[in-house]
Specification:
Blueprint: H1 2-59, H2 66-75, E1 77-84, H3 89-93, H4 98-111, H5 115-119, E2 126-133, H6 134-139, E3 163-167, E4 180-186, H7 187-190, H8 196-208, E5 214-218
Antiparallel strand pairs: 1-2, 3-4, 4-5
Length: 231
């Protein structure tokens, strides 16, 4: 009987020790994993922000359809200025500007008379507007037409996409219309396979502070220059 009690007490002590250790280790492991995962999520949100900003420049609005955003990245183009040469100090002091130089060169191209170009020393000055694939122009080889599809997938999930929402009806007190966008990933997505209680506690903490329980960029209620809530 005494032996049985001793065994039970030993097991109880071991169990309590395990509970104590896990009460310390579990939150630490959770935070470590959260930090690692949020680096990957933030990288995707920054890339989506880049695409949304360029989309707005070209279309005057943002898009809540991330699949259509990817299709645009795969097929769209971006106008860029190809530059060669620069104006000298002497040319600038004489009142020459890039805009004036371009006009002189455009005139020469139309007439075939390059006398003024030569007299002004603009032979090597080039400012041509060219169209390039928008994907390469924005990401410089980071993505191709296949891998860019993963941009809208939240890391550490089984193919769950970021949520996107737009507000095309926001007007400032001065009557200025400003399109707004918000792209987000809830804690339940990229932290979904971690400790449930730690995740619930984290969500509750953020909601108590009236914060979004996850990572997001932009805001559909007021302009914030598409800042991320991690910045």
């Amino acid at each position: 009987m005494k032996t049985t009690i001793r065994v039970l007490l030993t097991l109880a002590i071991i169990f309590l020790a395990y509970i104590c250790v896990m009460s310390v280790v579990t939150p630490i492991n959770f935070e470590k994993q959260r930090e690692i995962r949020e680096v990957a999520v933030v990288e995707k949100l920054v890339d989506i922000r880049t695409a949304q900003n360029e989309f707005r420049l070209q279309h005057g609005r943002y898009t809540a359809n991330l699949d259509s955003l990817i299709l645009w990245l795969q097929t769209g183009s971006k106008k860029e200025v190809h530059k060669e040469g620069a104006l000298t100090e002497k040319q600038l002091e004489a009142g020459m500007t890039e805009a004036k130089a371009v006009k002189v060169i455009e005139k020469a191209k139309k007439t075939g008379n390059y006398k003024e170009v030569n007299e002004l020393g603009l032979e090597g000055f080039v400012r041509d507007t060219i169209s390039t694939p928008v994907l390469g122009a924005l990401y410089h080889g980071k993505y191709d037409n296949e891998t860019v599809k993963d941009m809208i997938i939240i890391p550490y999930t089984d193919g769950i996409k970021f949520e996107a929402e737009v507000n095309d009806n926001y007007t400032t007190s001065q009557g200025i219309h400003i399109p707004l966008v918000e792209v987000r990933a809830h804690y339940n997505t990229y932290l979904g396979d971690l400790d449930d209680q730690e995740r619930v506690n984290l969500i509750d903490k953020e909601e108590q502070l009236s914060h979004y329980p996850g990572l997001k960029m932009g805001d559909i209620y007021e302009p914030n220059n598409n800042a991320g809530n991690w910045e």
